[in-house]
Amino acid sequence: MRPYRAGIIGTGGIAGMGILGMHDKDAIGTEKIDASHAGGYASTDEIELVGVADVDAEKLSQFGEAWDIPKSRRYIGHKSMLAAEDLDVVSVCTPSFLHHRHVVDTAESSADPDVIWCEKPIASSVTDAEEMISTCAKRNTELLVNHSFRFTDKLQTLHELMQHDDLLGEMYSVSAQFRMELLRNSTHLLDTLVYLLDARAEQVSGYITGENEAVESLEAGREVDDAGGGGYVVLDDGTFTTIDCTVPREPSSMTLSFIGSNGKLYMNNDDGEWRYFSLENGEHVERPLTGIEGAWTWEEDYKQSFSNAAHHVEDLLNDTAENYSPGVAAKRSLEIIIGFYLSHHTGGNISIPLDRPLRDVTITSWWAYCDSSVWIMMKRWVVCFGYE
């Protein structure tokens, strides 16, 4: 049996060339980085990376040389690769505002992959996310979104403890904190929240700081909407959550604190500390988390998550697993982020699922070049809905 054939759209950091803030600056863009989509494929036994596409010829060449992709299989533009290659899985590693077009084009192409492994966040608008999900469903293509935490043994075990072993009982409250910006970074935090609770936002109230440290550090050279922010979210299971994603990268920590009827759980992924307290006779008693040794860390678990995700792709291709991170789940974190922006600019609470006009609102991230900002798009429906 021939190996499964993989292609990658986009040759940036997450594809295989390194990410600022995560890897050695001197290595970024010049050598292959294992904590990536290409690195994930390289760790598998059954998947071979056979093609790559980008609109930037220089980056395409650098990636191809680093990952030993033949020149004949380095394609200018994703449509060229999709037309020329018969692919089993395609990674979409382009900026978030391009995910929609690249996922839909891939699903509908003659390449006909069984799996599309798309970077987070799923999209820049809920409407785009919904079309990606529906198109993949029609084509019988698994849409796997790379929210990295879901691909780690520790978080999967914790999910089982919370959902099936009733670790915390009835959930009351969660407080969570992470670095800015909401779309670029905080989608990880929000996805972890909805994954562990198996819940969806019902009501959102938000605040946007307008601060974006990535624009300067990554030399974006243009104003974008993605920024620090947060607010409160009421989930559909009744859990009240507070979200603070206003802190710059350097002093930040990803923390989540859960309080339930059976106990409480504290998670700090940057400091490597998870602590669980069981409520016994009115007292909180610290207990170990069954099946989990130590805490989730960026150095160990994040870097390993790409290999784990690629092996999960193998399982999906072999039809021996259910999708850990489907598009419908990834949409949940995006709805919260969009809700924060809508609430901030209207001064009101936002109900989820969003009404049709609100699902079209697009948040531009640091790499986007959209003609109209989120505020211009929002003004169109703010007037119609009587908010001013």
Give the SSE layout.
Elements: E1 4-9, H1 13-17, H2 37-42, E2 47-54, H3 57-66, E3 74-76, H4 78-84, E4 89-92, H5 96-107, E5 115-119, H6 126-138, E6 142-146, H7 153-163, E7 171-179, H8 182-197, E8 201-208, H9 213-217, E9 229-235, E10 240-247, E11 255-260, E12 263-268, E13 273-280, E14 283-287, H10 298-317, H11 327-346, E15 350-351, H12 356-359, H13 374-384
Parallel strand pairs: 1-2, 1-4, 2-3, 4-5, 5-6, 7-10
Antiparallel strand pairs: 7-11, 8-9, 8-15, 9-10, 11-12, 12-13, 13-14
Helix pairs in contact: 5-6, 6-11, 7-8, 8-11
How far the N terminus sits from the C terminus, by CA atoms, comes to 63 Å
Q: Strand pairing plus helix content: what structural class?
A: alpha/beta
Residues in β-strands, percent: 15-25%
Q: Which spans of ≥5 residues are poorly predicted at pLDDT below 50?
A: 367-388
Helix content: 25-40%
For the residues shown, what is the average pLDDT? 90
Largest sheet: 9 strands, mixed
How many discrete domains? Answer: 2
CATH topology of the largest domain: Dihydrodipicolinate Reductase, domain 2
Query: Numbering strands along the chain, what is their spatial order in the largest sheet?
Result: 14-13-12-11-7-10-9-8-15
Please identify which CATH superfamily of the largest domain we are dealing with: Dihydrodipicolinate Reductase, domain 2
